[in-house]
Amino acid sequence: MRRVLSVASEAVPLVKTGGLADVVGALPEALSGQGWDMRVMIPAYRGVIDRLGRTTVVWSDPDIYGASAELHLGKIGAMHVMALDAPHLYDRAGGPYSDIHGDFGDNAERFAALCWAAAAVARDGAGDWKPDILHAHDWQGALAPAYLRYSGSSLPSLVTIHNIAFQGRVGAEKMGALRLPREAFHRDGYEFWGDISTLKAGLTSADAITTVSPRYADELMRGEYGQGLEGVIAARAGVVIGILNGIDAGVWNPEKDTDCIPFSANSLAAKSKNRKTLQAEFQLEKKIDGPLVILVSRLTAQKGIDLLPAAVEELVARGGALAVLGSGDAWAEDLVLGLAARFPGRVGVRIGYDEALSHRMFAGGDAVLVPSRFEPCGLTQLYGLRYGCLPLVAAVGGLADTVIGATPATLAAQAATGFVFHPVDALALRQATRRLCELYADRKTWTAMMKRAMKSELGWESSAARYAALYERLLAQ
């Protein structure tokens, strides 16, 4: 069996702040069916080793960015984990990247240490295990392929961009602290407008670059999406590949979901019962004739939260309602809370995040709103498809790749699985909301779309096969 080392800052079920963790946690099991043994290396944040239970130390370094470190090999579920135990870097209160005071000031060093260890294991092995491929994720893992290249190793590597908006940019004065060779500080190396970009270091060093959807791969070559790295992506276009994320079909399964009344595409009766439960949970009116739309999201400008007022006006005017779950920027939280105050009984808001509640929302909602200005892949719309909660999405990134918008042609072909709007502005979203409400009134067509959406291929099988094929191609090269 071929071996691959995956290096990332988070992985479900050990630590999660977003979709990156879901992908990193799902890939090992998906790839095992393709003949690949994947081990995941993450930092040993406080509590991680305890959750792994019994572990074995398979690698150590007496001086990794300030003090000694050990690599603990353990297992959680089907995933083999290599947790980098470096208390001076990771044993602290707060999340993976910040605490109540903001981002940790030494994040560059913290994740450089992770990458240094990953490159060492990729090059020399750990215990009796040595990978054939190194797979790094986002800026936190991107220095691993760079360290490999700078050391002269020929081991194949790739970097997956989950969100190019986060680039690991720090001042050039950290060059020595990050153990980066000065001779690579140039436009074709890791230099970025006079600073260091750890993501760029990986993009210019790895043998391949993947993104989490085909459309996002194309978008990143354009200035409006590339966040200043569009030239780097375009220059390496021949090795850039978009591979869609999947979802864990075991966790997100309406037929076996213990957080709701189970239902299926062939037995939708419980969907209406889940809807009533959701209405009560968000203190919405008992009688809602229009669609019950949900929004489960970070509340930020990227997610298009500022576009909501016009859409909500249209939705409520046509008899619908909105349930919101999320947290984020203060202005965005104030905006959704303001909508709830303006439309009592028609807009309900829960600030924060609750995984079980999100399951109940997809189970009870008629449609899920995802008006993102950019979205590398997105998982929310996939959950919506799985639960017959039809997505209304912006025509960007993975949203456009996964949702077939309702148009006269797609409806006639019995292919539509949701609603897609463009451009990403308030007018287009309002018009799409109007179309959604009109189609909701056509129960026969709506039900057919629900069933079609629920039968969409959303798991990891095809995506894992594409990753496996890419690994094989890199080895052959």
Task: Please give a quick description of this structure.
The chain is α/β, with parallel strands linked by helices and 477 residues long. It has helices spanning 19-32, 48-52, 87-90, 107-124, 138-141, 143-150, 198-205, 214-219, 223-226, 230-235, 269-281, 308-317, 330-342, 355-364, 380-386, 397-402, 408-412, 426-440, 443-454, 461-476, and strands at 2-7, 36-43, 56-61, 69-76, 79-85, 98-99, 102-103, 133-137, 157-161, 169-171, 191-192, 195-197, 208-211, 240-242, 292-299, 321-328, 347-351, 367-370, 390-394, 419-421. It is built from 20 helices and 20 strands.
Number of domains: 2
Per CATH, what is the topology of the largest domain? Rossmann fold
* CATH homology superfamily of the largest domain: Glycogen Phosphorylase B
Poorly predicted parts: none
Mean pLDDT over the full residue set: 96
Oligomerization category of the chains in this entry? single chain
* Shape label: globular
Number of helices: 20
Measured as a percent range, the helix fraction is 25-40%
Beta-strand portion reads 15-25%
Q: Can you list the strand order of the major beta sheet?
A: 3-4-5-2-1-8-9-13-14
Span from first to last CA?
A: 19 Å
CATH architecture grouping of the largest domain: 3-Layer(aba) Sandwich
The profile of the biggest β sheet is: 9 strands, mixed
What is the number of beta strands?
20
Question: Given this structure, which CATH class of the largest domain is correct?
Answer: Alpha Beta
Family: Belongs to the glycosyltransferase 1 family. Bacterial/plant glycogen synthase subfamily.
Keywords: Glycogen biosynthesis, Glycosyltransferase, Transferase
Function: Synthesizes alpha-1,4-glucan chains using ADP-glucose.
GO molecular function, one term: alpha-1,4-glucan glucosyltransferase (UDP-glucose donor) activity
